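Each letter names a residue; structure tokens follow underneath. Both lines appear below:
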Amino acid sequence: MYAKLLMLCCAWAAVSAAPGLLDIGLSHGYAAPALAAPAYTTHTIAAPAITTHAIAAPAIATHAIAAPVVRAEPIDPNPAYSFSYGVSDPHTGDQKEAHETLQNGVIHGSYSLVEPDGHVRKVTYTADKVNGFNAVVQRTGGTHAAPVAVAAPIAKVALAPAPVAVAAPVAKLTLPAFGHPW
């Protein structure tokens, strides 16, 4: 509803701000009254003058501006890349590594990590447009968890439950002794 009101106000402002836009022959101007005549004579008053407004279109200078020429970069028909990373943090026990390469439209890669129980999980994968994504998962290693440094607790705080006081009821509401109709 507010949008309709806003649109109506904008239309009204546009019409009232542009004189002559919707003129139908009447204007806001009026003719000045006739000069005072001598006593005991009749007075004549001129009718409102009808004016029209002529609005000239603004002159628009046109300049030819040459658009910048955009040249497409050459597309490599056989893109290739290779990346790898590794993490070995003795403080947290986090150990992982990964590498991946793209050559001739085929992606080859692998990643490995140490699981919380000490096993090493290694995933080797390939991906291409014909065969899709294929992965081989290997799990090797020990049966004990990798040592992880754990910080000792700062302080132990024992909390005892606070006693709760319950107030006795103020009034007792009872129903009359006769039965209900429902």
Notes: Strands lie at 81-89, 94-103, 106-114, 119-128, 132-141. The helical segments are 2-17. Residues 36 and 124 are 109 Å apart (CA to CA). The radius of gyration is 46 Å.
